[in-house]
Amino acid sequence: MRTLVTTFLTGLVIALLSGTGWSALGSEYWVFYGTYTRGTSKGIYVSRFNAEEGTLSEPVLAAEAQNPSFLALHPQKPLLYAVGELWEMSGRRTGSVSAFAVDTRSGRLSLINQQPSGGSGPCHVSVDAEGRFVLVANYGGGSVAVLPVSTDGALEPAVCLIKQEGKSVHPTRQTSPHAHQIGFNPTGKVIVVPDLGLDQVLLFDWDGTRGQLTPHKTPFVQVPPGSGPRHFAFHPDGKVLYVLNELTATVSIFDCDDGVPTRLLDNVSALPADFTGQNTAAEITVHPTGRFVYTSNRGHDSVAVFAVSDGGKRLELKANVSTQGKTPRFIGLDPSGKYLLAANQDTNNVVIFRIDGGTGIPRPTGQEVSVGAPVCLVFSPIAE
Known about the structure:
Blueprint: H1 2-7, E1 28-35, E2 43-50, E3 55-56, E4 60-64, E5 71-73, E6 79-84, E7 96-102, E8 109-116, E9 122-127, E10 133-138, E11 143-148, E12 160-163, E13 183-184, E14 190-195, E15 200-207, E16 212-222, E17 229-234, E18 240-245, E19 250-257, E20 260-269, E21 280-286, E22 292-298, E23 302-309, E24 314-322, E25 328-333, E26 339-344, E27 349-355, E28 362-370, E29 374-381
């Protein structure tokens, strides 16, 4: 189960864990928001979420940080890791990764330490299933890095750094590599990295003892030129990989062998056929039942709802639902699978939708909260 949870760090991180003070209490969770701090935000914010009622408390500042855009939780301990999406740190062309201790009773965060991310513009972070390593994707640097986690949760300097080379066809967005996400396949043995600049989904074998990445025997799978792969999610059975392409707002569907993509099956648009405006895709998530896939459109400002069939190999666009705001940078499902939260970056709001169990279509509940430039969110248990 933990491996599958780690796989879905492209979107929602659900920690259903046990340990000292680190267990879920009923249906209530902390929701931590990663943000951009160029406007009203000062860092990472937190709300209390009630999964029975589908309600969020007003967010409060959990910790000050600079551009903590993406977050990940430790799988066993009350720890949270955040990238600092910066292009320079202490005079070096690198962003940062920070470790925080979570007060599970208040939701407040305490900074433990910070390390360079190994490249500029880090945009995604994940944690291995054993909680021994933090992995980061550097968009600007076109690289990925692995940082060990010490016993107290602090980050140690990177032990693995891999920088890609090359480009693709888009004249401005694909002149160099741009790693956009890093996460695990369902077996936990292979690392998956969509690279927007290369039009490739990179594959690495994972050495969880030493924290090392080596190219898989199939080092990458290709999406159509100019697509710009951004984020991925696996079908719950692990036999199908969905790759969301930012530039074309399409989902590439790959057949998988033991959790490794082998063959491109189809590309499906996330936009209505009559849409002609400017748009880029941002986030993808799969419903726990495997019956529905959701993606977000920035420009059309909608959640695309796909019905899943043929064992996950077929997606059919059923609806585009307004996110009730502009530029939905992130969408995520709560741990119950009953609610979808849409984080609208340019209108500074997070909107709650209830998912229709029959159609999978999210319906706005009428509730939203204000967060400055929200970029992602993760759910964490509330301590007993």
